[in-house]
């Protein structure tokens, strides 16, 4: 089983690449989805986040107020590190369970979609590291338009993540997403051929 670490900064198009790889038959494990799952209402993860940051991070429905928490942690590296210390071990446990299930099911290619792969030094956990790359301002524009976020908030998140050069230095393979959606699909098709060959 080929374990692929897929990463890219906010707005790079990483989710589009992982969806396309899933359409070819890859098993995709999405770290962001797992990070949401481990802090759902009633979980020990949510209780730990509230213990760390206070009840002000709760929404009226008892769930996590993500925009509020984002405002707190993306403006302060120490607070971001505290949040990551709570969430990352829980995500790691859950992803290990899903990886074991994929292996038991005979999966040939498992793609672990993880935004903070480089920041957390996780490259050695994967057989291949794939970086989805796009210019910073294109990323700001995509996220501002797609998620309705203020451009300055997007830039703050970009600054909180690994720099483009650092991410590219960690890559075994790079998917350039500076072009059109059609060009991205063509590049992912070539990427899949490469991954399938390595998995054979």
UniProtKB/TrEMBL annotation:
It is found in: Cytoplasm. Its EC number is 2.7.1.24. One of its GO terms (cellular component) is cytoplasm. Catalyzes the phosphorylation of the 3'-hydroxyl group of dephosphocoenzyme A to form coenzyme A. It is an enzyme of class 2 (transferase). It comes from Nocardiopsis algeriensis. It comes from the Bacteria. Pathway: Cofactor biosynthesis; coenzyme A biosynthesis; CoA from (R)-pantothenate: step 5/5. SUPFAM superfamilies: P-loop containing nucleoside triphosphate hydrolases. The keyword Repeat does not apply. ATP binds at residues 11-16. GO terms for molecular function: ATP binding; dephospho-CoA kinase activity. It catalyses: 3'-dephospho-CoA + ATP = ADP + CoA + H(+). One of its GO terms (biological process) is coenzyme A biosynthetic process. InterPro entries: Depp_CoAkinase (IPR001977), P-loop_NTPase (IPR027417). This is Dephospho-CoA kinase. Belongs to the CoaE family.
